[in-house]
Each structure stands twice: as structure tokens, then as C-alpha cells.
Amino acid sequence: MRTVIIAGIITFLIDQVSKYWVVHILELDRLREIDILPPLLNFRMAWNYGINFGLFQGNTDTTRWILIAIALVISGVVIWWIRREPGGLWQHISAGLLIGGAMGNVVDRLVYGAVADFLNMSCCGIDNPYAFNVADIAVFAGAVGMVIFTGEKKAA
Predict the structure, then answer these.
(1) With contact defined as beta carbons under 8 Å apart, do 96 and 149 qualify?
(2) DSSP 152
(3) Is the dihedral of CA 119, 149, 68, 100 positive or negative?
(4) What angle do CA 112, 116, 122 make, to 5 degrees?
(5) Which residues are catalytic?
(6) What is the pTM (predicted TM-score) of this model?
(7) pLDDT (tens digit, 9 = 90+) per residue, 118-147?
(8) Whole-angstrom Cα distance, residue 35 to residue 67?
(9) Is 138 in contact with 104 (CB distance < 8 Å)?
(10) CA-to-CA distance for 113 and 100, rounded, in angstroms?
């Protein structure tokens, strides 16, 4: 479990520091957009009250608390899974990424009432209208890793 905890804490801290820096230091919530390496990487402020791609965008307290509860339940299930079926290093890192990212978005919902999304990437003539954050990347990578590395057993 040590690897899961370390990966989760590092992921959580990177996510929260990046959001603090972008929202409060760069004042992206006021500026709304900053071009970094257009069109490949831009900062575009988006307060996400729903889940990925703005699904379930309710902007109600009920939606907010349901999404917080879902993130906590999923994190609990991942911890239960890892404790019951201990896998290898990459499965533990993946679990930590997923949990750390989920907790980063939970903190956003508690502090801001919504998730702070700011990364926007476009390429090759495709204009991506969506923004995401470090936690979203970690949750996605962690979920994929949990699937890929399930069944990998610890070395004896």
C-alpha cells in the first residue's frame, strides 16, 4: 500500500499546486485564457460542475455532493481491490494516480463548488473546445493502468 499512498499523494499535490498556480497566481479565472504553445497547449479556464466533457453539468449542490460521493466510493473500491488482490508495482502506481486525481477533484468541488479545468490542447486543424486538468489525466491513466496491470502479481 505504500506505493499507492505515495503515488496518490504526489498526484494530489501536483494537481492542487497546478490549479492554485493557474487560478490564483496567473489569475486565469479572471483572464479566462492564456496561449502557451498555440494551438498545441493553451490555458482556458473552465469551471466544470459535471464530469468529463461537461456531462451532468447541473451546477446544483445535489449534483456536487453526488459527484463527491461517487469519487469517494470509487476511491474506496480501488483501495479495497488493491488490498484484496495485490498486484505489482505498476498496478499500485495506477491505483495511486486514480485515487490522487479523484481526491484532487473532490477538493475542488469542496473549495470552489466545481472542478477547475484549464488545460486545452488542439492539433492538426482540430479545435478542441474542452479543458481538463492534471487530476483528469491521472484518473484516466490510473483507470487504464488498473485494467492493463490487473493480474500482474508481485514478485515472490
Answers:
(1) no
(2) P
(3) negative
(4) 165
(5) 117, 136
(6) 0.88
(7) 999 999 888 888 999 999 999 999 999 999
(8) 31
(9) yes
(10) 19
